[in-house]
Structure formats: structure tokens, C-alpha cells
Amino acid sequence: MKSISMLTLAASVAFAAMAGQAVAAGDPAAGEKVFNKCKACHQVGETAKNAVAPELNGINGRKSASVEGYNYSEPFKALGITWDEAQFKEFIKNPKAKVPGTKMIFPGLASEADQENVWAYLSQFGADGKKK
After folding, report:
1. How far is the C-alpha of 12 from the C-alpha of 19, rounded, in Å?
2. Residues near 47 by Cβ (< 8 Å), separated by ≥ 6?
3. What is d(CA 45, CA 47) in angstroms, rounded to the nearest whole number?
4. Amino acid 24: pLDDT
5. H or E segment at 74?
6. At residue 9, does pLDDT exceed 50?
């Protein structure tokens, strides 16, 4: 009986670890606070629209420069990536280094924790702007 309980516990721990890999590593609540730095240009959520910059709903898995109705710079059009955590963190650390010639004036987020937290926050939103 004891070995079955240990086996069940081990399976539960393994499942929890695998499930955690699918979720962004950061803290969405902390990311929402950091995202305040981005709100002057970007919107997210059910009422989000393109403004100075494109809305960011459904960014996880979305092709770069693909938000309908937003006029991207030529360097951004040529970027040709699919957004995931690694691409986002590389970009948001120093946007001008990742996309030379971008219109984006934001200097970036140097803190890896801030990068992870903003990604976790943004990853909550589906393309329709609803939280998953």
C-alpha cells in the first residue's frame, strides 16, 4: 500500500512539473505592473486596439508584424519570427538591437525577471483579448 502511495505521489509531482513547463515562468501580476511602462503605446485585453504601436493580444505563437491594420516599419516587416518567450525576451531586452531601424523608442527591459513577468502577463491573453 505504501509503495502505491509513493508511486502516486511521484506521478503527481512529475505531472505537475510537466504542466508547469507549458506555463510562462514569470509572475503575471508582477508583469501587469511592469507592463505599465508599455501602456503608452501598446494595448492588451478585450478592448485593445492598435494605437502608437500594435495591440498585443495573442502574441504567444503569433507571427511578427502580423496585426491587421497596423503599419509596421520595414525592418519589423522583415523580421520574420514567431513570437515565443525566447524571442520576446531577446527583443524586449533591447528592441533596437533585435530590430535595427525599428520605430519603437522604448529602451528595453534589462531585468530578466521583468522580461519573464511581462511575457507571463501577455501570454494570458488570447487573440480575442480574453484571458485564457
Report:
1. 10
2. 129
3. 6
4. 58
5. helix 74-79
6. no
Nearest CA to 50 out of 31, 67, 25 is that of 67
CA distances from 8 to 14, 21, 43 (A): 10, 20, 44
**How far is the CA of 120 from the CAs of 88, 92, 99, 124, in angstroms?**
11, 13, 22, 7
Please give the single-letter amino acid code of residue 14. A
Q: Which residues pair with 131 in a beta bridge?
A: 125
> Which residue type, as a one-letter code, is found at position 132?
K
CA dist 27 → 18, 64, 104, 126 (Å): 18, 24, 25, 17
Looking at the whole model, is its pTM more than 0.85?
no
* C-alpha to C-alpha distance for 105 and 40, rounded to whole angstroms: 11
Q: Give strand pairing partners of 63.
A: 82
For residue 104, give every residue at least 6 positions away whose Cβ sits within 8 Å of its Cβ, in sequence order, or none. 41, 53, 95, 96
* Residue-range domains of the chain with CATH: 26-123 (1.10.760.10)
